[in-house]
Structure formats: C-alpha cells, structure tokens
Known about the structure:
Elements: E1 10-13, E2 20-21, E3 31-32, H1 36-45, E4 49-55, H2 58-67, E5 78-80, H3 84-95, E6 102-106, H4 109-118, E7 123-126, H5 146-149, H6 151-166, H7 172-178, E8 181-187, H8 190-202, H9 215-222, E9 227-236, E10 239-251, E11 255-263, H10 272-287, E12 290-295, H11 302-311, E13 331-335, E14 346-349
Parallel strand pairs: 1-4, 1-6, 4-5, 6-7, 8-14, 11-12
Antiparallel strand pairs: 2-3, 8-9, 9-10, 10-11, 12-13
Protein name: HAD-IIIC family phosphatase
Organism: Saccharopolyspora elongata
Amino acid sequence: MDDKQTLVKCLVWDLDETLWRGTLVEDGNVRLADGITAVIEELDSRGVLQAVASKNDHDLAWTRLVELGVADYFVLPQIGWGRKSDSVRRIAERLNFAPGTIAFIDDQPAERAEVAFHLPEVRCYPADQALALPGLPEFSPRAVTVDSRRRRQLYQANFQRESERESFAGPDEEFLRTLGLELRVGRADDEELSRVEELTLRTSQMNATGVHYPDAVLRELCADPAHEVLVATLTDRFGPHGAIGVLLLETRPDHWHLKLLATSCRVVSFGVGTVVLNWLVDQAFRAGVHLVADFRATDRNRMMDIAYRFAGFTDERCECSAERPAEAGVQRLHLVPEPRALPDTMRLDAPAIGRPRVP
Length: 359
Ligand SMILES: [Zn+2]
C-alpha cells in the first residue's frame, strides 16, 4: 500500500449474524461463524485493532465473547442500544484515529448505511465479506513488526493508564511523574529500522513533513555520516510502548536540518514531541549550529506545527540555509538554539550527536 490513508487501523465488528451465527437474545448459545477466529487472529497479528459495536445487552454479550475465548482481542467494546455511528465515532476518538482509518462490518444494510451517513470516511463491509478481509490491501500493512504484533496490548495498557489518570486529581505533569516514564533516543539498528518505516506510515497526525521514507532510503541514510536516523522508544511502569518516534537529521557544518520528525499518536498526551525537540535544541546549541526543520501542513498534523512553534521555531529566514531553499509546499522553520533543561516528567537517555562545541 502506497497511500497510508487507505490502511485500516481498527476494524469494528457487529456481533449478531456477523461475528457469530444467530442472535444472542434469542439463542444464548450462539457460535462464532466458521473461519472467524482465524480472521480475528490474523488481523490482530498484523496490528489491526479490533473493536465491537453491537446492539445487545452489554453484560450478556461480553460474557459470551469471554466464553467463546475472543474477548481479549477487542478494545473499547461498544455494546448497548445507541446508534452505531455514535459507537464507531467514540471508538475513533478514544483511539485518536481518523475516521478514514476505521472499518465497520455488519450484516444489516441499514446499520452500514447509518454509519456511512454520519461517518462517510468509514469503510463499511457486509458480514459475508468477513473471511475475505485479510486478503484486502487495506488490511495488509506492508510492514509487520514486533510492535504491530503487540499493538493491541499496548493500547490496552494505555486505557488502563487513562483510567488511572481520570481518577488522579492533580495537574497533568504531576500525573506524568507518577508513570515513571523513560524515553530512550538512539541510533536506529536493523530491527528498529523496520519499525521506523511502519511509524512513518502510521503517524499521519504527528508527521511533520507528511513524507514517507521507505526502508531502503532510511537504511542508506543510516550509513551516511552526514545523516542521523534516530528512533525514540518509551517505557513506563506499565510496560513498554515500543518505538514511538523517529527523527531524520542531516548534520551540516553550520546547521542541522530536521527532515523528518514523527511521533506516535499514542504518546501525544505525554508531551514526547516537546521533550524530543528540546533535547535536539540543546544538542544543537552544544554543537554550535542553527536548526532548520521542514514542515508540510496536512489535514492531520496541526499538533506537530504547534509543537514546533512551542519549541521556538519561527519562519525567519537565515543565512545558514539560504542556499538550499525548501521544496514547494514545504515551510522551512528556523531556530537559533540556546541551552534547554532536561524534562522533569520523564527520564531521558539520549546520545550526544554532532561535533562538540569549541569552548
Ligand atoms: Zn540559521
């Protein structure tokens, strides 16, 4: 898939006559439709999240999913009597996913029409297509990594954190300090590079350039002494978040050029983008260079624009990068660095990059 917008990140299942044969309130003993378990497991292993939107008695339906041995595969189950479009919208909002990355499968044409009416970007499939879904390109991410196989657990741990956060009354930073966050920034190794490619495909929201760097290009740049390919990983007391950010930096004698900065939408609320930018500004100060960054506005990456401005980047022109103008449609942001303090919300483990500053 070349167009990252077309990949499905979450599939929302109807239950009666879709996930299982029969109607639960009429037949308490419903069984999964043939081949459905294999579809659920396959999509899960590819990192496609799965949720439920069903008009049913919540406790009865959830109990049946547990008995059938598939309850663990679903995040954010929406089981009740409300509109399915509301259920799908809630799922998208809680996951921080664009509606265009959500798919919905239901045997009832009227339910599919209701979802399509309110959420036209959501892709709707009839129940008889369930077994064919893993063969469709929109359910076939090009890169399947350790992180995609663990994606569901990562989200489930996140929901656990959020429910703790909701019950925590102090200011946000105080809460973040209770998480024991550890952010590691390191030069990408071979295994991480495949995760990086996946990240740049998936992070439409926090991708500052909207540019996708293929694996092969990043591998070449890794070997180029004038480029740094850095991967950020995050852990906290609930466990690892995996690879959550990538930076592609060209280190030139008088300025560093940040060509790509993308962070996972899962960790936006932890302020990771700001921490990484502050670290980079501090490193640039130590190296005695200016920083320039490319920004291409998309309909999804406004938050990254805010992160750059918040870190002190401006539109001012500077001699340092004058001879290399930005491509059409790309804003060239600039910053004259000064020392920055380490974050007090997380522990940061990051390498020294560039030349040491001459005293
Ligand atoms: Zn400059």
